[in-house]
């Protein structure tokens, strides 16, 4: 093997990391087309000149089984040997493949552009229940915990008395007196 060559085991480790990326049920033995494209992009196999995203998709479709949607490491290696001469023009197949392995070995999926949780003061201000007024104020108790349905719905008083009547519950006493 050429000097400074990368072991296939290192490439397989990267393959597994990319294979499980974004899929909680993935075992790491098989990779889908989306993750293959991500690996090619993150490891700079796609350079925009010699190898494009379209090339990667074509090679993926070529190496996978006709009905399958995923490739195993064996087909992954086959795909890399298809892409290597394209990526490193003018190099022999073996040398180009080694350089491609060098790009991939030890790499992990990059989480570029992942949305971070906003820590703006506005969110705290908007969720502070002590500052609520009007109808919204009624939806929370003193501790700021929501009252649930009782805080959202006007529950009718079915006691039979008018809302502002002060002598509620005194009818029985009046009947006895008479």
UniProtKB/TrEMBL annotation:
Compositionally biased residues, Basic and acidic residues: 135-154
GO molecular function term, any single one: tubulin binding
Tree of life domain: Eukaryota
One example of a Gene Ontology biological process annotation: microtubule bundle formation
Stretches the record annotates as Disordered: 134-154
Subcellular location, principal: cytoplasm
Tagged with keyword DNA-binding: no
Family (UniProt): Belongs to the TPPP family.
Protein name: Tubulin polymerization-promoting protein family member 3
Organism of derivation: Oncorhynchus tshawytscha
